[in-house]
Known about the structure:
By secondary structure, chain A is an all-beta fold. Chain A has strands spanning about 5, 10-15, 20-25, 35-40, 45-50, 55, 60-65, 70-75, 85-90, 100, 105.
Amino acid sequence: EIVMTQSPATLSVSPGDRATLSCRAGQSVRSNLAWFQQKPGQAPRLLIYASSTRATGIPARFSGSVSGTDFTLTISSLQSEDFAIYYCQQYNDWPPLTFGGGTKVEIK
Amino acid sequence: EVQLVQSGAEVKKPGESLKISCKGSGYSFSNHWIGWVRQMPGKGLESMGIIYPGDSDTRYSPSFQGQVTISADKSITTAYLQWSSLKASDTAIYYCARTMTPELVDAFDIWGQGTMVTVSS
């Protein structure tokens, strides 16, 4: 099973600031990684797939990158609607498809 | 519109059986893998298993193998998750989700609204 480790667990950011979220894979997952956003009481929403491709309808302020087994989700200028929990998930080696533990982005 | 619509909330007692559903519409249901994801109260996302409705090829996450059964009926574009004997620890929200690319296991791009299952004596 590939372990996905997200950091930090909580990120306090002011509106308009940049947020950088990290996700490390326990072994190579190539570029087979997705990022999801989840707001309270809602289902997760796909933001990024294939490490860096934005899903349909996702604003350009969301971007993904990879270096080896380290993945980054960057939100360039946080909007009020971006405060949520973010999860990464690898789909390179399955079962199981594994999620990270999540990063909560909260208002500073 | 592509969507997955899940069955409603359930309240059950320990030891009871349960089957929840996930109906797909607006796309070729047979050709996209469907996954089930558990979210326990206040916790993160856990993948339980996936099924290819076209031929019912099913793969379980090791933690859930033997604990649940995943199935699908492509004739009515519906996937299912069932338990034969519920435990209190099965209390959670269960989501179904579709993989993005036909025939491939990749990112989940469409999610159901979730089904809350409460198991309590």
